[in-house]
Specification:
152 residues; alpha+beta; two-stranded antiparallel sheet; two-stranded antiparallel ribbon; 7 helices
Length: 152
Amino acid sequence: MRKLFAPLFAALIGVSLIAAAPAQAGAEKTFQSFLGTAINGYDPVAYFTEGKPVEGSSDHAYKWNGAEWHFASAENLATFKSDPEKYAPQYGGYCAYAVSEGYTAKTEPDAWKIVDGKLYLNYNKDVQEKWAQDISGRIANADKNWPTVLGN
């Protein structure tokens, strides 16, 4: 039985990795996703409305900018659809500290901050502490690096 499922599992992982790779079209950036789901399946609107990370549901899903976004409610989905740029995290959902250093890294849902109405995510709380030591400088560096950090 194990031998029967091993090739199937390997094929599914291969397809998942291809689906999760950032698609690039010109200067447009897509969002970091794991198995096609943006920001680890967390609801980006909830960071603004509830002030904390809230897991989304595939029952309230929306495809936007190269990834599937999950929301905790139909209301949050509608809010996001009305202005996705307002609620989507900066730098494609990649770690803001990493982008400020010129590379990308995944993020953890509980390492986040809203600055000037924009959502920034970090690799983890330790990295977020480093980022917080010079938020404006880090944002300036990341803004400068972002157009080329994915290799465009």
